[in-house]
Specification:
This protein is an all-alpha fold. 60% of the residues lie in helices and 0% in strands. The longest helix has 15 residues.
């Protein structure tokens, strides 16, 4: 299901994957979840879960050593 919250989670995950914007991603996730509307409740947990999945999907670095 494509919801506003899910799109925001995906966006924050993209920021979190970039070393230059990871701090901003953390700040923005905290800021959104603190919103009194309740719309973003659980956003940080969803980001953590999706970020963990994204890390698993990234291929391992190539082994450049020659086989023996």
């Amino acid at each position: 299901m494509d919801t506003l919250c899910q799109r925001q989670v995906e966006h924050v995950v993209q920021w979190a994957q970039n070393p230059g914007t990871v701090d901003y991603a953390k700040h923005r996730a905290r800021e959104l979840e603190a919103c009194q509307s309740g719309l973003w409740t659980g956003l940080r947990a969803a980001v953590r879960a999706q970020f963990g999945q994204a890390k698993v999907l990234v291929s391992e670095p190539l082994n450049l050593k020659k086989p023996r």
